[in-house]
Amino acid sequence: MAFGINKRELENWKQQAQNEEVALITHFWYDPKFPHYHSVTKAANSNVNKLAEWGLQYGLKPEWIHHRDPFPHFDLLGEKQVQVLKAEGEYSQIERFCSNLK
Fold it and tell me: The organism sits in which domain of life (predicted)?
């Protein structure tokens, strides 16, 4: 379940992904399988080939893509999450959701 984002942010993320841009959205999150992580970044693109190609620059393997139509995406956690957000210039998302990981 996602917490900490508003409807406009979610709609912008969806629109970017549908326009075949890599869309990044970070939100608070809890999964008992990963109790030490408190947020996740979803990197999505409706064009799975573009998403896979983008992910390679960060060491993300195409087989890690979650094939969820209409928004295939990578789930980014922890250090990789912060690395990608910094490289993509998404400092506000780091400040809001990843301050314990900086």
Answer: Bacteria
Three-state SS for 58? coil
Long-range contacts of 50-59, Cβ-Cβ distance < 8 Å, separation of 24 or more: 50/20, 50/22, 51/22, 54/22, 58/83, 58/84, 58/87
Over residues 14-54, the pLDDT tens digits come to 999 999 999 999 999 888 998 889 999 999 999 999 999 99
Amino acid identity for residue 23 in this structure: A
Rounding to the nearest 10 degrees, give the CA dihedral for residues 22, 25, 31, 33. 30
Structure tokens belonging to residue 32? 């008992």
Cα–Cα distance for residue pair 22/16, rounded to 1 Å: 7
Strand order in the sheet with 73-76: 23-28, 39-44, 73-76
Distance CA 74, CA 88 (A): 15
